[in-house]
Amino acid sequence: MKKAEKTRLKIIEQSAELFNRKGFAGTSVKDIMEETGLSKGALYSHFTKGKEEIALTAFRHAVGVVYDAVGRRTRVIESSVDKLKAVIYYYRENIFTPPVEGGCPIQNTSVDANDGNPVLKSEVVKALTDWQERIIHTLNKGIESGEIRADIDKEQFAVFYIGAIEGGILMARAHDDDKYFDIMAKQILGRIEEIKV
Amino acid sequence: MKKAEKTRLKIIEQSAELFNRKGFAGTSVKDIMEETGLSKGALYSHFTKGKEEIALTAFRHAVGVVYDAVGRRTRVIESSVDKLKAVIYYYRENIFTPPVEGGCPIQNTSVDANDGNPVLKSEVVKALTDWQERIIHTLNKGIESGEIRADIDKEQFAVFYIGAIEGGILMARAHDDDKYFDIMAKQILGRIEEIKV
């Protein structure tokens, strides 16, 4: 990797954690300068549009890091039902040790971007929609293989799956107690049993 | 109301909306000065500890406003089952017109306070715990009256109820589409049917 690419990646990685912990409004260009040890000029030479461009790139990076981490866990699993369960177990294990410090970037950025940052908000919608499509893809595979019932409402399943994970993360991280995620996980695992053939 | 009390209430009400929309880190004392039209000195004469004290008081106020709004809807309802349903309908109707601008203060402050503000965080835990206790109180009333099964796990029900509402609000507000809340609501209403005698 060239030096410029390395610097760019370092900015992205370090600001991804900053934005994920402190939010868009709570993270200043000065914070990014301090974290990366770079001057304002150096930051702007990589991201000419400044903080908004860094935040957008950092969010995409953070979502990618989470997807990769989940993907490493589920890639080897053949069964669609087991894949859906493995994602729940992955989140369960990593609530307090998330791949991007600060927790779920979709949750953090969603709450953060709802009031005031339309570019970041549309990126959150994209990430949520991507996630939903991945779940529906897994459901389709399971229907094809005869593991999952063909008559289920796939959108409803996927939305519930995501919503219950996000609600569980929110409560577990607020209370500092994974018991709260477990209760949501139990309901999702119950739904998975219901869609099995 | 005395003039000083009026001013104090105005600071609390206006900063509750600011903090709820922009978060703790994203709201500066300058923002509060601009919103209220008060000087820094005037703000500090009411809140000697500054921004943190304002944020804490504003959060308590915001949670109180939501509880009052929900309470006005449910107070007249005798049946515990109908009370539990009415809260879901209330949230459904008010996702985009919440009583405190910016959405659910528990959700916003929880995500915001997880990384960095221990005082605000402990207040979020208190609000979540209070909510859980109110649900358990309603369940107990329903068990006493013979409406709700006595053998249910009340804590599990209450945590799922809160988590599914919060997950639903998060997705609906991100997508700007109440369909996402409806899907979570359907699951909660299904759980309510399961606990009925």
Give your account of this protein's structure:
The structure is a homodimer of 197-residue chains. The first copy, chain A, is an all-alpha fold and 197 residues long. Chain A has helices spanning 3-22, 29-36, 40-46, 51-74, 80-94, 105-113, 118-144, 154-175, 179-195. In chain A, helix 1 (3-22) crosses helix 2, helix 1 (3-22) packs across helix 4 (51-74) and helix 5 packs across helix 7 (118-144). The longest helix of chain A has 27 residues, at 118-144. The termini of chain A are far apart. The A-B interface holds A 21-27, 102-103, 107-108, 110-112, 114-116, 121, 124-125, 128, 155-156, 159-160, 162-168, 170-171, 173-175, 180, 183-184, 186-187, 191 and B 21-27, 102-103, 107-108, 110-112, 114-116, 121, 124-125, 128, 155-156, 159-160, 162-168, 170-171, 173-175, 180, 183-184, 186-187, 191.
